[in-house]
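Subject: Sanity check before I submit

Could someone independently write out the structure tokens for this chain? I want to compare against mine line by line before I put it in a report. The sequence has 224 residues.
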Amino acid sequence: MFRYLLTVVLIIASATAGFSQKGLYDASQEWPVKIDDGWFTARTLTFGPYSTSSRKNGIDQDIDLSFIKSPQHAFNIRVKGKEQDILIQVAQAAHIAFSGLSLPSFLDKMPATALFSYIGINAAKNEPLKQWQLILKDMNYLELNDNKPAGVLRSSETELRITANNRFGAHNSYENICYEFHLRKQVVAAVMTGAHPRVWMSAEMEGNALQPILAAAIGALLVR
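---
Independent answer below. Compare away.
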């Protein structure tokens, strides 16, 4: 009898957890994605009410990345909405370059030579933690199978954890990587990158000041 009750409890718990994850992926919360990649135009994307500019190589003159030593593959874009025009800087750097920042343990325990992707959103000169920043590590397929932590999106007041999975691809593969944004254990947005991108945004983010920040992070991931 005890085993039966335990099994029932585990099934209910599993179903509840699954429902909370799947809730975001309801069709009503998916934003259409359009890719404009014409012969004579640079590649841009539109997702929901937001759009990206084309990529510009290098570091924007209005952004200071002096706290990161030897940034690699740097480019910048803008994500625009009805009332937003957000400057975003993207670069890669070795873990050791972030030694001046406090990082979550799953990032901090990575080797000093591990490459991190850094995305600065509305960067403020000389004040890296008074802007929004997204720091991501590379994932292996075993981590993707289990939707393990991949990074953090944070300002000086707020932090969202990011996980990555291959729920839309094959098991044990890097196909169709999907990033989920978690705010207080709730998934509030997700983006599947790749040749056929998809974007989801929780209805609870409508009118929330976090929505443009999530859109900026998603835009950066879509063009990365």
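---
OP: Matches mine. For the report I'm noting this point. Confidence is low (pLDDT under 50) at residues 1-20.
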